[in-house]
């Protein structure tokens, strides 16, 4: 079987050479992208029919993208005179639009290979080339062989997981080509990379669990509303006391903050009311969130009572509104059922839109009448769902770049670091020696987009049993606070000092250095209490938890910082990482130095003095954080 495939493949290449030699010699090719193996759950079924038509999309490299870090630090580095002078959308588009040279180079190559110019379609903003080709044409262009792959659920895909090739002179003009190695076509709630965090049950939640869900109900008589027993039930008052968070908001009419959810995951308005009455009486009467549907006709349903659907959104909005009060409107971004962040990014930035930017129809699906740059942005955006960093690197890099571009407009993205310690969130995968994600043991697999350096990754903490809000918090024991080092994104300069310090200390502890990539970006950046969180779900007082709770808590704190800056006529804080890692912010966090984040059959990393890949810089000390951010231009 395998032999005959190989043979077919070789014959195909020979035929190509003969054809091409008839006109002009083919360009030498180099490998552009490949996978070590098909993604988990997929296997090759048969060679693709040579006559099948493939909608080939070629994402052109953006101009100046190698300067993104320089541009970003110019406005986000607290030492820069331009701090806080965020870019306009026009500046972003003008700077990063792919060059004419890139589109022409790719066009000429296609023409050289016998693809008539009239078949090739260039998007308005020159970011994407599309051409319908037969499988045999695609195999020739990309020096690959296409297969039909089948998923365990029966669905089929055409792709070439073992890689594709581009001419040397074309490589530098192309980010990625689809359909090729990017499988994981969006399937409802099934994709290994984009799982929603579920609120977790206190009783049966442990780091080994793959898909924690459900909640444990608590008798109302056992509910503590004040900053006491925060080891047993963490409430709004606990967070206020822990982080000294008593903001006086004055700019709620113009400050903005949002939470991302997938379709159907709306909060229940009644739950919110019960929660606020009990845990944040001053916020009673808060309005329901402003619903912004992205690529969905969904109407918000704030009456849904299925705990599986509402637990995440209930938790997110109860915490955020409970902390920010009734004056601050909060936006709910519903990004549809696919859970692809690209739709959110598209909705903010038209230049990134489907067929004009970073979307990969193979991963994101194709959406008719997609929302492009027409949705209101928020100064702070909280994202509580993540998945393993096991999508093709070029895809993650392009999406991360987009987070970077949007953050340069002054948006702070806060992303949960995951709840499975050093393994991937939700499905607990680790990396086999050949780089394939597998159930552990294996090398550590951190979560994307938390590993993107342009977002702020949020880990979790707990008040230890028998301790109070006056004692230092620890890493949670009910689950592992997601953390580790990226295998895709190198360590950004803002982390250099503190991550090096951690690695030097780690020398004395037992973490097998072959299990993680110490040159990668470290996560999380910060942490906040994530267990055992009080919530009201489907009318019941419940104990839930996870970095799902930590993320909206931290997002509320950043929103309050923005409120105070706006009051002084300053800009929102945007991408905060360069600032918070600087020496200026040393006192702005409570260092967490106790606990680990187990996963992949190991204890994970230890929390140590200073930054660590369990709790990042630590939990916020709001007055100090505010003071430092108010001191910046
Ligand atoms: C490719 O074919 C599809 C379906 O026939 C069509 O809608 C699309 O416009 C074609 N694209 C190009 C670039 O010709
Ligand atoms: C809420 O409480 C009711 C009554 O005690 C129970 O039947 C239901 O299962 C609980 N829901 C959850 C999500 O625990
Ligand atoms: C380690 O991370 C770097 C990015 O920092 C990456 O280029 C490299 O491929 C990674 N190595 C492995 C073995 O994953
Ligand atoms: C460290 O954390 C454990 C729980 O993981 C807790 O029992 C212990 O009291 C903590 N120790 C200190 C010194 O905080």
Automatic annotation (TrEMBL):
**Annotated GO MF terms:** metal ion binding; serine-type endopeptidase activity; tripeptidyl-peptidase activity
Q: Which chemical reaction does it catalyze? A: Release of an N-terminal tripeptide from a polypeptide
Going by the entry's taxonomy, the superkingdom of the source organism is recorded as Eukaryota
EC number(s): the record gives 3.4.14.10
Keywords in alphabetical order: Calcium, Hydrolase, Metal-binding, Protease, Serine protease, Signal, Zymogen
* Signal peptide start-end: 1-22
- Cofactor(s) listed: Ca(2+)
Record PROSITE patterns? SEDOLISIN, SUBTILASE_SER
Location of the active site: 312, 316, 548
The residues that cross the membrane are none
UniProt-recorded name of the protein: tripeptidyl-peptidase II
Q: Which organism is it from?
A: Trametes coccinea (strain BRFM310)
């Amino acid at each position: 079987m395998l032999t005959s495939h190989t043979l077919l493949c070789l014959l195909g290449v020979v035929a190509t050479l003969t054809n091409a030699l008839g006109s002009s010699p083919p360009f030498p090719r180099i490998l552009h992208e490949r996978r070590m193996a098909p993604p988990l759950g997929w296997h090759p079924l048969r060679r693709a029919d040579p006559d099948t038509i493939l909608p080939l999309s070629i994402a052109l490299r953006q101009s100046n993208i190698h300067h993104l870090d320089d541009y970003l630090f110019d406005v986000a580095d607290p030492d820069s005179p331009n701090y806080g002078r965020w870019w306009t959308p026009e500046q972003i588009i003008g700077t990063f639009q792919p060059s004419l040279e890139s589109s022409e180079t790719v066009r000429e190559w296609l023409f050289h290979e016998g693809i008539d110019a009239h078949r090739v379609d260039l998007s308005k903003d020159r970011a994407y080339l599309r051409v319908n080709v037969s499988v045999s044409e695609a195999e020739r262009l990309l020096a690959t062989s296409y297969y039909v792959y089948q998923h365990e659920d029966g669905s089929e895909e055409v792709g070439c997981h073992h890689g594709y090739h581009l001419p040397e002179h074309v490589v530098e003009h192309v980010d990625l080509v689809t359909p090729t190695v990017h499988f994981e076509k969006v399937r409802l709630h099934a994709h290994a990379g984009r799982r929603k965090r579920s609120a977790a049950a206190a009783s049966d939640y442990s780091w080994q669990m793959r898909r924690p869900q459900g909640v444990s109900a608590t008798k109302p008589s056992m509910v503590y509303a004040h900053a006491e027993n925060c080891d047993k039930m963490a409430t709004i008052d606990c967070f206020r006391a822990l982080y000294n968070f008593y903001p006086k908001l004055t700019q709620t009419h113009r400050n903005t903050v949002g939470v991302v959810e997938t379709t159907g995951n709306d909060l229940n308005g009644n739950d919110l009311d019960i929660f606020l009455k009990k845990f944040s009486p001053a916020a009673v009467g808060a309005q329901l969130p402003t619903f912004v549907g992205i690529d969905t006709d969904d109407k918000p349903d704030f009456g849904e009572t299925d705990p599986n659907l509402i637990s995440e959104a209930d938790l997110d909005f109860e915490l955020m509104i409970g902390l920010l009060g009734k004056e601050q409107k909060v936006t709910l971004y519903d990004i549809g059922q696919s859970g692809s962040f690209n739709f959110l990014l598209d909705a903010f930035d038209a230049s990134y839109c489907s067929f004009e930017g970073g979307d990969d129809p193979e991963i994101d699906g194709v959406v008719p009448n997609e929302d492009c740059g027409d949705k209101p942005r928020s100064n702070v955006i909280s994202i509580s769902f993540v998945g393993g960093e096991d999508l093709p690197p070029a895809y993650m890099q392009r999406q991360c770049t987009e987070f970077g571009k949007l953050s340069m407009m002054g948006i702070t993205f806060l992303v949960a670091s995951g709840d499975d310690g050093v393994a991937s969130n939700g499905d607990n995968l680790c990396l086999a020696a050949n780089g394939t994600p597998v159930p552990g043991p294996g090398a550590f697999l951190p979560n994307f987009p938390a590993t993107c350096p342009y977002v702020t990754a949020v880990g979790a903490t707990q008040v230890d049993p028998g301790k109070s809000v006056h004692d230092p918090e620890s890493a949670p024991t009910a689950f592992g606070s997601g953390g580790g080092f990226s295998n895709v994104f190198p360590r950004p300069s803002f982390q250099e000092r503190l991550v090096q310090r951690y690695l030097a200390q780690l020398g004395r502890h037992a973490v097998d250095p072959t299990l993680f990539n110490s040159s990668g970006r470290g996560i999380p950046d910060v942490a906040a209490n994530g267990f055992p969180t009080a919530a009201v779900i489907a009318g019941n007082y419940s104990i839930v938890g996870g970095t799902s709770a930590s993320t909206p808590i931290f997002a509320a704190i950043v929103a309050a910082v923005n409120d105070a800056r706006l009051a002084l006529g300053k800009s929102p804080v945007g991408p905060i990482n360069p600032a918070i890692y600087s020496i200026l912010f040393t006192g702005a966090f409570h260092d967490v130095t106790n606990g680990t984040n187990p996963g992949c059959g190991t204890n994970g990393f230890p929390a140590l003095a200073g930054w660590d890949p369990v709790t990042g810089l630590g939990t916020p000390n709001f007055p100090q954080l505010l003071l430092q951010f108010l001191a910046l231009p």
